[in-house]
Design goal:
heterodimer, A: alpha/beta, eight-stranded mixed β-sheet, 17 strands, 31% helix, 19% strand, B: alpha/beta, six-stranded mixed β-sheet, globular
Chain lengths: 417, 432
């Protein structure tokens, strides 16, 4: 009854990056599945996918018969590497102090040896956006491959340098003083943000003229730094990453973006089913993150499960995100739950791969099994959306990575009686 | 293991043609996961007066009660959550004192809570509604059927053994509480203190019992003594020591689990169930020897230091050591998909799928002492039934009907039909 864990722990330490996966059912995502396919990987990239692909001599062959090959999944918003144990402050680097943190970089603080990273990748998630939060502008997110010894090694260079906007979400709608206070504060936050963007444009212009920051002292210097960083981001026309869950919050974000001609990557989206048509008509990208959450009292029981299907029917293209670290491994099951509630399976798989890649600006290199793309490939003995199915092999940048994690290591001594 | 049921409903019904109208017939189910050792195919379930009276292959000719078309559906026992805090109006913790076994969850149950309806929609029909973990010895828990909008007395399973919450480790130490909170600085602040609190409470209870025994002896001797002052707290502690109130203990680390088991043994009692117990896999033989069950999470980890040595293989390792194991939700959200939490034990540790299903049906029923009436689909059991669109362990299946004691308390098509306005976009083309 029990699969021997040792068999699962096959740590293939192939140093060569050339690899041929043969006899596999390939699911390129961008095109229909191919049975009995060969996937040829060279120099960490996918060289060919098809039935008639010759395997060059000397290339390591991975027998894929009975297995299904999918592109590695991408989590559009995580705190991987920025947090280890949530309640132990010394292990958490997610939120900086102060309102304006555009100059901060997640890449400066990611721990490549976090136990959370292998735990996520052995369930088929090979790429993730790591998002710093804190203040109204949280910092620059980093897109990483979930394998590597150093951050520079892990960084996906093509990723957009998304900066995070963080307007606090509204509390319960109960008409309380707390709620009224929230709306007052939210209005102020948008006004502050508006002023900040204006000052940022000016600061950037001054900087371009060769002027260093005019103020004195460390706080002022930090603000100047942040303004210049925001200014550069605006100049480059890069999108802003914004978590918005409540209806009012989503609509306010859309209005703000229109007014200031910003492109957004809107994430979370718990109430998006109520305003799906508005999202479809907008130029922004979307990451669904609120499938596994309890609906509000006045919502149908399946509102969060059915929400992705509503967006799909309205013509909205979206990816998925967990917003988590320890829970990144459960990313595919959000999509599975959406499928059980009306999202076509093909769309769900695209959302987990190609569409998230699109939202993060890495669709040219990630998200499908296509020649020239990075060889992030996962082999499953069944359906990756099924909770019971685990990957047999995870390949990141053409390299087969170990399926060992903190969790298998802890369990191993106790598995054989 | 799979076979068609031999019971012939037709014969049964011919012998007793006039069925009472308060019955339900679930006809032609693709599959019935009995959780009693069998998976039956192409069978029907007949329910009369809240009980299962037959599970069999043939159909009755006429039936005056409600008929549910089971074609394309699979049935499981209603799922059971051994650890929940829903429907108690926020009254989770009596956190003002360290020992409070006199308080009762039963007193704060809210049968109108929408959390109950949400849980029913996920196929859950019974739950152990527990006191929180703010104090070492918390309050008395309630074992309930999820009878939404019924009087509290009907929800509570009156013949279930009484249970009390204990808590070890970081939570009763209040280590993750902000210091300025009023209860942020109180004894105990270490695991040593936690043990001392339990020992002191037990010793106090023994002394209290001795005072009452001395009083009884004096009365029997014909004297007229002054009775001791009644103390509800100590009375509850005496109930624990005499086995009338069973210990359900929140814990994480292997060392504190052993501490608690040894402490219980010292006082001649047994811990009924260890809850969470994320490091239980390290002391599975000791837990099995003591005879405690474990109710754990499928894959939660990393949220505090005592959850950092967690492994999702925990449930499978415990199960293999013969420990009675269940998977619980501890969440108003996760209680809506306990089936998927159970399915994770197939992934982590390779449990047989039917055994995995037991982790959220018959196994928690046994842990709560309600297995004589629920947790399996068998003749004579309460008709607590969930009907699924497919394999109950598949992420792609969903619940379409949930029955509690024969009453349909969740019906997806009725739920969908009642939606108005913008809510209709959630279910535009309902297939059933």
């Amino acid at each position: 009854m029990r699969t021997c864990l040792c068999a699962l722990l096959l740590a293939a330490a192939a140093s060569s990056q050339d690899l041929a996966i043969t006899g596999v059912t390939a699911h390129p995502v961008s095109s229909p599945a191919v049975e009995e396919a060969t996937i040829l990987v060279q120099d960490g990239l996918i060289a060919a996918v098809g039935r008639e692909v010759p395997v060059p001599e000397g290339v390591e062959v991975l027998e894929g018969r009975g297995l299904h090959a999918y592109p590695g999944m991408i989590d559009g918003w995580t705190s991987l590497g920025l947090t280890e144990i949530r309640s132990v402050r010394g292990t958490v680097d997610v939120r900086e102090l102060g309102d304006w943190n555009a100059a901060l970089r997640a890449a400066a603080a990611i721990n490549p040896f976090s136990a959370h990273i292998p735990v996520a990748r052995v369930n088929g998630i090979t790429t993730a956006l790591v998002v710093p939060r804190g203040g109204l502008v949280g910092g620059v997110a980093a897109c990483i491959e979930l394998h590597g010894r150093t951050v520079p090694e892990m960084l996906v260079s093509q990723a957009l340098p998304l900066r995070e906007l963080d307007i606090p979400a509204p509390p319960v709608r109960d008409g309380s003083e707390e709620e009224k206070e929230y709306w007052r504060k939210a209005e102020e936050d948008w006004v502050d943000l508006e002023r900040h963007l204006e000052r940022a444009r000016r600061a950037k212009r001054l900087r371009d003229l060769g002027l260093e920051h005019p103020a004195q002292g460390p706080v002022e210097a930090r603000e100047w730094h942040s303004l210049v960083a925001t200014g550069r981001h605006l100049d480059a026309g890069h999108p802003w990453l914004l978590r918005a869950d409540r209806r009012e919050h989503i609509l306010a974000a859309l209005r703000f973006a229109r007014k200031h001609d910003l492109r957004l990557v809107l994430a979370g989206l718990r109430d998006a089913w109520q305003v799906a048509a508005r999202l479809a008509d907008s130029p922004h990208a979307f990451l669904v993150g609120s499938v596994f959450r309890l609906p509000a009292e006045d919502e149908p029981y399946d509102a969060s499960y059915a929400m992705p299907a509503v967006l799909h029917r309205a013509g909205v293209r979206f990816g998925f995100m967990t917003g988590s670290s320890a829970g990144v491994r459960n990313l595919p099951y959000m999509a599975a739950m959406a499928v059980a509630h009306g999202l076509p399976r093909d769309t769900a798989v695209k959302a987990l791969t190609l569409h998230t890649a699109g939202a993060l600006g890495i669709e040219k290199t990630h998200g499908s099994l296509y020649p020239g793309k990075v060889a992030d490939i996962v082999l499953y003995p069944g359906d990756p959306l099924d909770v019971r199915v685990s990957p047999r092999a995870v390949i990141i940048r053409g390299r087969r990575v170990s399926l060992e994690t903190r969790h298998t290591r802890l369990a191993e001594p106790f598995l054989e009686k | 293991m799979r076979r068609s049921a031999p019971v012939c409903l037709l014969v049964l019904l011919a012998a007793r043609p006039a069925l009472p109208a308060q019955g339900v017939l679930i006809r032609d189910l693709d599959r019935v996961h009995t959780c009693a050792g069998e998976v039956l195919e192409d069978v029907s379930i007949l329910v009369v007066r809240g009980r299962i009276v037959a599970i069999g292959a043939d159909l009755p000719g006429e039936f005056s009660g409600r008929v549910i078309d089971g074609r394309g559906l699979e049935a499981t026992p209603g799922l059971i959550d051994a650890h929940s805090h829903i429907a108690i109006q926020g009254g989770v913790n009596e956190g003002t004192d360290v020992v409070t076994p006199e308080v009762r969850i039963e007193d704060v149950l809210d049968p109108d809570s929408d959390q109950i309806q949400r849980a029913l929609a996920g196929g859950t029909t019974a739950a152990h509604i527990m006191h929180g973990s703010a104090n070492v010895i918390g309050g008395q828990n309630a074992v309930v059927k999820l009878k939404w909008k019924r009087p509290v007395d009907e929800m509570v399973i009156s013949d279930a053994p009484r249970s009390v919450k204990f808590a070890l480790g970081e939570n009763p130490k209040r280590s993750n509480m902000r210091r300025r909170r009023r209860d942020g600085r109180r004894f105990p602040a270490t695991r040593m203190g936690v043990e001392a609190v339990v020992r002191q409470a037990f010793d106090g209870a023994l002394a209290y019992r001795e005072r009452w025994q001395a009083y009884s002896r004096a009365r029997e001797a014909g004297r007229d003594p002054v009775p001791p002052r009644r103390d509800l707290r100590k009375e509850a502690l005496v109930d624990i020591l005499e086995g009338r109130l069973r210990i359900h203990c929140h814990c994480y680390r292997a060392d504190e689990i052993l501490m608690m088991l040894q402490l219980a043994e010292e006082y001649g009692i047994r811990v009924a169930v260890l809850h969470h117990a994320l490091e239980a896999y390290r002391v599975a033989p000791e837990i099995a020897r003591h005879g405690a069950g474990v109710s754990t999470f499928a894959d939660w980890w990393g949220y505090k230091f005592e959850a950092y040595d967690a492994t999702p293989y925990n449930a499978a390792i415990l199960h293999d050591h013969g420990v009675l194991t269940s998977i619980n939700s501890d969440s108003a959200d996760h209680i809506r998909r306990l089936n998927l939490e159970a399915a994770k034990s197939v992934k982590y540790g390779g449990l047989d799928p039917e055994e995995a299903l037991h982790l959220v049906t018959v196994d928690p029923a046994r842990q709560l002492g309600i297995d004589a009436r629920t947790g399996t689909l068998e003749k004579g059991k309460d008709a607590d039934i969930a009907l699924w669109t497919g394999d109950p362990l598949s992420s792609r299946s969903r619940v379409v009907f949930t029955l509690v004691e024969g009453e349909v308390l969740f019906d997806r098509s009725a739920d969908v039909a009642a939606r108005e306005g913008v809510r209709r976009v959630l279910s535009p083309e309902e297939d059933r």
